């Protein structure tokens, strides 16, 4: 690769495109995992995915990925062509997953700047064995393959021409005048102009764009095309018509001749005699090898263009591939750019208020009618702009849920249980940052349900439950929060046992009895570090870690975990997480010369208290009596050593805040107002200050610090 | 050691920016920072103080929507604090993607200091902590500039230790997960 830059671009593109293909592959596989077999469309899709991955990995020279993709492609080729009816479906599904896992892992390595150094040999061997197995079973009389396949020319394997009844087949032979310059590019132009009407197109020589020497070949032998189209001969002629063309031969031919490609008249393909005796794989492999070799000789960025013209490719130039009906068009945007856009929009909003509230406008007697109209318009658009950028950060949970589907599949097979995952509300939209944070916790919860929640088959039968366990994953949007719940119809948790276990492992003080805790509090024990109800440690869970990590992760995005269970009926774990991290509704307040913000959600009420309501402890602790209840008081001015703050409680205002059932009062000088604020992290250069969770920019451009109520309580 | 780091850091810009130093005055001395660390120089801004941090961290400024911490160089060097005026400047530096503003009294200018004119600092410390950040003495004309290693300037030993701790914590967390 000549330039680092273009290589990077290619690499990004490679990772992105193939990553998407893999996701698509996994999704389809999961969807059909319970069916008896894949249908033809699926097989074709797998085939195409593997083929594309193989091709592009070849270009990027990731050999192991290429070989592995090639092997799986072989398997699907066989399945598609020979339609063996005894393919062990589950085994195939597992092979697909193994391959996609391997490739994903390699992609991760590449993404992190490493080399894809994984060894695919084992997987390839396994696939070989699998392929042999289905082959032998398919052709028990010893024949390797049905002979019908052998006759197919190697270049026609991938996508059979989309034959419709009206399709006509043409053989086109273009001769260029001997003095024509760059006849290869002219030939390419011809192919390009036919693209629109073509259902399928083949041409020879194939390397007209990469190989300049092909110009001589074209001049000597002419340029040949095989075209499948619904258009008439005249139209073709008109489209091709270009400078330098001496003669165009267009002959109609039968589909059979068409399938044979160029071999019929010229027998020689690329200077090699077609070996009709070898089985299809060998030929295919050879052709592939030649093409790959050709590609790796000249891995120019331009190869992306040529790639699609390769005869073996899905004929995207002729027919746009059918998209899934639900698919929307997306572009992927660098998150850094999104953040920049968001910052800029924030700036615009601030600049807007600077203009609209400019002191220069306050001159008495100024007529501002038109100005005010224009200003109102501007305000409308800027607020719309803000809404749009916010919605851009929201993503549906669909992908996260799909991943869970896979986890249930893997985990349930490992423990030998039959489990179905039901998904409700997967289109619920959540801020992208949050999605990143909840994926791991969800995974832990689901594994827990598979491993601990759902009982063994016999146990289920004895309890009169259907053999198939059901785990329900549900997402819903309620009051600015997202509720994500994982529930199973398993055995549920026994509070007595949990309590006994917690006591035994010393997680609770020995003097406490079970009646000191509510049922829900006892369930929360499972989130304590080092607590595992499973006697035996399994591969999936049971090491006593997991739930505590779940809780930590959830808390880091301001969420909560709620556990409920009924013995014998099942367990439900619910995550409550804020819709977005980026914007909160906050109350802005002043203490001394500093401005602070407290999230509205944690504020219970604002109070004016009298000196007589205060209780002072000798140690310096302060309390306030409100309606007969006593709350601790935190003075921000004292906690943070701020000067010029109000000392007398009757001058300032008390804010009663609540965090996870604990209440306290925060004393501030005065309130400025409520506002939607964009949360920004305090630069990591500054050490974390207890009680502060971030900062934000106010309308006048100044910075306010956001109080983390949970942090104040510690 | 400091020079080694600087060299391997940024090979392609060496030609145009090599030997150029942004110099500024703090107290009685002139200091120099290699120009490739400098993002920009801005006038004094309103600073939002952050409670409970090191005294030399004056707070946060809002630079076109970016929140940037600023440190007072004089306090960092254990010199007497000074009153900020309109001559006071903030030099925005970028050290390995950490963007920090340095509050300095006056900007002196950009000067070319050849490597041959740079001498290592005297090893005998006079009790001040200055030598930690000064990696060389640059002679220009008849004055001497103290050349600063910005990485050490913005990094506190405490912070380094703290970062190490968090790093270890995350490692552990990963193992556990």
Structure description:
The complex is a heterodimer of chains A (about 725) and B (about 180). Chain A is of the alpha+beta class. Chain A has 5 domains: about 5-145, HPT domain (Four Helix Bundle (Hemerythrin (Met), subunit A)); about 155-275, Histidine kinase CheA-like, P2 response regulator-binding domain (Alpha-Beta Plaits); about 335-395, Helix Hairpins; about 395-580, Heat Shock Protein 90; about 585-714, Beta Barrel (OB fold (Dihydrolipoamide Acetyltransferase, E2P)), CATH 2.40.50.180. Helix content of chain A is about 40%, strand content about 20%. Chain A has a 6-stranded mixed β-sheet. In chain A, strands 8-10-11-13-12 form a 5-stranded mixed β-sheet, covered by helices on one side. In chain A, α1 (about 5-30) packs antiparallel against α2 (about 40-60), α2 (about 40-60) runs antiparallel to α3 and α7 (about 185-195) packs across α8 (about 215-220). Chain A is flat and about 105 Å long. Chain B has one domain (about 1-175): OB fold (Dihydrolipoamide Acetyltransferase, E2P), CATH 2.40.50.180. Chain B is built from 5 helices and 11 strands. In chain B, β1 and β2 form a beta hairpin. The model of chain B is unreliable at about 1-10 (pLDDT under 50). The chains are: A alpha+beta (about 725), B alpha+beta (about 180). Chains A and B meet through α14, β23 and β24 of A and β4, β5, β7 and α5 of B.
């Amino acid at each position: 690769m000549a330039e680092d830059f273009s290589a990077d671009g290619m690499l990004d593109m490679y990772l992105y495109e193939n990553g998407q293909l893999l996701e698509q592959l996994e999704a389809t596989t999961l969807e059909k995992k319970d069916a008896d077999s894949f249908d033809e469309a699926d097989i074709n899709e797998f085939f195409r995915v593997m083929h594309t991955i193989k091709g592009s990995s070849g270009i990027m020279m990731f050999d192991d990925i290429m070989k592995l993709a090639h092997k799986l492609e072989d398997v699907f080729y066989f399945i598609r062509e020979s339609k063996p009816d005894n393919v062990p479906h589950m085994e195939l599904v597992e092979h697909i997953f193994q391959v996609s896992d391997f490739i994903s892992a390699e992609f991760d390595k590449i993404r992190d700047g490493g080399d894809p150094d994984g060894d695919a040999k084992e997987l390839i061997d396994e696939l070989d064995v699998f392929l042999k197995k289905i082959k032998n079973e398919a052709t028990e009389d010893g024949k390797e393959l049905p002979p019908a396949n052998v006759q197919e020319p190697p270049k026609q394997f991938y996508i059979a021409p989309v034959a419709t009844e009206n399709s006509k087949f043409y053989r086109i032979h273009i001769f260029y005048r001997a003095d024509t310059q760059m006849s290869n590019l002219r030939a390419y132009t011809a192919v390009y102009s036919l693209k629109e009407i073509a259902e399928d197109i083949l041409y020879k020589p194939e390397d007209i764009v990469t190989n300049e020497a092909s110009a001589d070949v074209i001049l000597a032998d002419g340029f040949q095309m095989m075209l499948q189209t619904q258009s008439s001969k005249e139209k073709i002629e008109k489209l091709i018509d270009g400078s330098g063309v001496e003669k165009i031969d267009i002959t109609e031919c039968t589909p059979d001749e068409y399938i044979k490609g160029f071999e019929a008249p010229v027998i020689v393909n690329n200077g090699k005699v077609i070996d009709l005796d070898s089985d299809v794989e060998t030929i295919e492999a050879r052709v592939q090898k030649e093409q790959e070799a050709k590609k790796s000789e000249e891995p120019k960025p331009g190869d992306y263009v040529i790639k699609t013209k390769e005869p073996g490719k899905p004929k995207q130039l002729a027919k746009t591939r059918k998209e899934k009906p639900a698919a929307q068009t997306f572009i992927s945007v660098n998150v850094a750019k999104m953040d920049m856009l968001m910052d800029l929009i924030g700036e615009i909003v601030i600049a807007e208020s600077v203009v609209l509230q400019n002191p220069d406008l306050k001159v008495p007697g100024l007529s501002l009618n038109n100005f005010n109209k224009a200003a109102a318009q501007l305000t409308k658009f800027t607020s719309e702009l803000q809404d749009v950028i916010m919605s851009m950060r929201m993503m549906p949970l669909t992908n996260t849920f799909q991943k869970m589907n896979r986890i249930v599949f893997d985990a349930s097979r490992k423990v030998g249980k039959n489990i179905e995952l039901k998904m409700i509300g997967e289109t619920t939209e959540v801020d992208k940052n949050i999605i990143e944070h909840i994926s791991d916790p969800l995974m832990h919860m689901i594994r827990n349900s598979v491993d601990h929640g759902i009982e063994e088959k016999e146990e289920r039968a004895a309890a009169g439950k259907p053999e198939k366990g059901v785990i329900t994953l549900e997402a819903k949007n309620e009051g600015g929060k997202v509720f994500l719940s994982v529930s199973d119809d398993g055995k549920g948790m026994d509070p007595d046992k949990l309590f006994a276990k917690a006591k035994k492992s010393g997680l609770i003080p020995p003097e406490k009895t079970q009646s000191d805790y509510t049922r829900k509090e006892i369930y929360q024990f499972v989130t304590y570090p080092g607590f595992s109800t499973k006697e035996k440690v399994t591969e999936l869970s049971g090491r006593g870690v997991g739930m505590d990590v779940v809780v930590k992760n959830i808390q880091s995005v301001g969420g909560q975990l709620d556990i409920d269970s009924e013995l014998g009926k099942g367990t439900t774990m619910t995550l409550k997480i804020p819709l977005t991290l980026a914007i909160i509704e906050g109350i802005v307040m002043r203490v001394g010369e500093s401005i602070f913000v407290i999230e509205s959600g944690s504020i219970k009420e604002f109070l004016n208290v009298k000196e007589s309501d205060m209780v002072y402890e000798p140690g310096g602790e302060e309390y306030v009596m409100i309606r007969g209840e006593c709350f601790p008081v935190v003075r921000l001015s004292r906690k943070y050593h701020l000067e010029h703050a109000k000392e007398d409680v009757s001058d300032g205002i008390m804010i009663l805040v609540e965090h996870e059932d604990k209440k306290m009062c925060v004393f501030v000088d005065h309130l400025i107002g409520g506002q939607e604020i964009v949360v920004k992290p305090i630069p990591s250069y500054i050490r974390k200050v207890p009680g502060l969770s971030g900062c934000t920019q106010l309308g006048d451009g100044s910075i306010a610090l956001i109080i983390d109520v949970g942090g104040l309580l510690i | 050691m400091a020079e080694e780091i600087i060299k391997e850091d940024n090979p392609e810009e060496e030609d145009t920016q090599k030997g150029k130093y942004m110099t500024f005055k703090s107290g009685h001395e002139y200091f120099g920072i290699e120009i490739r660390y400098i993002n920009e120089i801005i006038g004094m801004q309103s600073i939002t103080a952050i409670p409970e941090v090191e005294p030399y961290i004056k707070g946060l400024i809002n630079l076109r929507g970016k929140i940037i911490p600023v440190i007072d160089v004089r306090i960092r060097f254990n010199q007497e604090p000074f009153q900020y005026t309109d001559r006071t400047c903030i030099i925005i530096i970028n050290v390995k993607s950490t963007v920090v503003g340095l509050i300095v009294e006056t900007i002196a200018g950009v000067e070319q200091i050849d490597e041959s004119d740079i001498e290592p600092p005297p090893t005998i410390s006079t009790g001040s902590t200055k030598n930690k950040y000064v990696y060389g003495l640059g002679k220009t004309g008849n004055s001497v500039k103290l050349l600063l290693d910005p990485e050490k300037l913005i990094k506190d030993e405490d912070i380094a230790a703290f970062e190490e701790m968090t790093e270890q914590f995350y490692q552990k967390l990963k193992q556990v997960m």
